[in-house]
Design brief:
The structure holds two protein chains of two kinds. Chain A is built from six helices and two strands; from the N terminus they run H-H-H-H-H-H-E-E. By secondary structure, chain A is mainly alpha-helical. The chains are: A mainly alpha, B mainly alpha.
Chain lengths: 183, 134
């Protein structure tokens, strides 16, 4: 009798644990669905080739034509040499185009980024997009360039905790040395 | 013919299953550079080149140590973006110097950035010998 009770309790614990894990994973998925602002995409090649020098910017922050131009001028990448072999460039351009702001306009911020751009405009710097400048207009320079924990607006993930996953919600901002952003 | 195929297949199996060590990759590359440079390489010359300063077109002083520090066993920092660079010395970072493609890519880019030109086979050989000795 006692053995049955012990086994029953054990089984119940296993079932409960499994159920909890399922629930928390579903919650997390739902959370990202609700908050992501540009497509949340992962590509190990992109992460490795571009992410070794700087944050791997979500492709949804620029239109496809911008990525294409950037990837065909890597020998002068904002003054740095970031050359890649042709096969890698082709592979990365494909990934970037497929997930760019104009390819994924269902995402809120991607849509806003391309809304302000004419077709002839091929921006290369995310930080100079009208939408980007508008969103950061209230932030004083001493919090950015004068802040050793940030140093440049290009380092999205120093303040936006989930930037690499395409989420830039105001609730997820913590400015080094200043704490939570309070609009 | 059948024997040949068996040898090729078992050779391939060996390549695919053997662990990648910095030593193997470096040896292969050094042989290649050696053929081009017709010169033996020196870790000491590599260390000197590592710390040597070059003047860039914009007047900046640049050397390998600008980003990687003068000790390749330490982590460095990208001079432009500030991103951390893991140590290059295989003794502290076993992932380093294990992929030919990676070594070629970074030597090409970083020689152009630092020296303003691609490195010669001798320079590449010296640098690799130096890093591999750490």
């Amino acid at each position: 009798m006692r053995r049955w009770i012990v086994m029953g309790l054990g089984l119940a614990m296993v079932v409960t644990l499994g159920w909890n894990m399922n629930v928390s994973m579903a919650d997390e998925d739902e959370y990202w669905e609700r908050t992501r602002d540009v497509a949340s995409v992962e590509n190990s090649r992109y992460q490795e080739e571009c992410g070794s020098c700087h944050m791997a910017y979500p492709p949804g922050l620029l239109p496809g034509r911008s990525w294409e131009k950037m990837m065909t001028s890597l020998d002068d990448h904002f003054g740095e040499n970031a050359e890649l072999d042709a096969a890698t460039v082709t592979e990365l351009v494909q990934f970037l185009r497929d997930n760019s702001a104009d390819a994924r306009p269902s995402y809120r911020r991607s849509r806003k980024i391309i809304r302000d751009l004419s077709d002839e405009n091929v921006p290369l710097r995310i930080t100079q997009l009208d939408y980007f400048r508008h969103e950061h207009r209230e932030i004083p320079a001493r919090w950015i360039t004068g802040n050793p924990g940030v140093s440049s607006l290009s380092n999205c993930n120093t303040c936006h905790q989930n930037a690499e996953r395409g989420s830039f919600s105001e609730r997820e901002i913590t400015i080094p040395g200043h704490g939570q952003w309070d609009d | 013919m059948k024997l040949n195929i068996t040898i090729i297949v078992s050779g391939l199996g060996f390549i695919l299953t053997s662990p990648v060590l910095a030593g193997d990759t470096v040896t292969t590359l050094l042989q290649e550079y050696h053929t081009q440079a017709a010169q033996t390489f020196s870790a000491d010359a590599g260390r000197q080149l590592w710390n040597q300063s070059f003047v860039a077109a914009n007047g900046d002083q640049r050397s390998c140590s600008t980003c990687h520090t003068s000790d390749p066993a330490q982590a460095g920092k990208h001079t432009r973006t500030g991103k951390r660079i893991e140590p290059l010395a295989p003794s502290v970072n076993p992932e380093r110097l294990t992929e030919t493609r990676e070594i070629r890519k970074w030597l090409k880019r970083n020689c152009k950035w630092t020296l303003g030109r691609e490195c010669t086979a001798r320079e590449k050989g010296d640098l690799l010998t130096y890093l591999n000795s750490l």
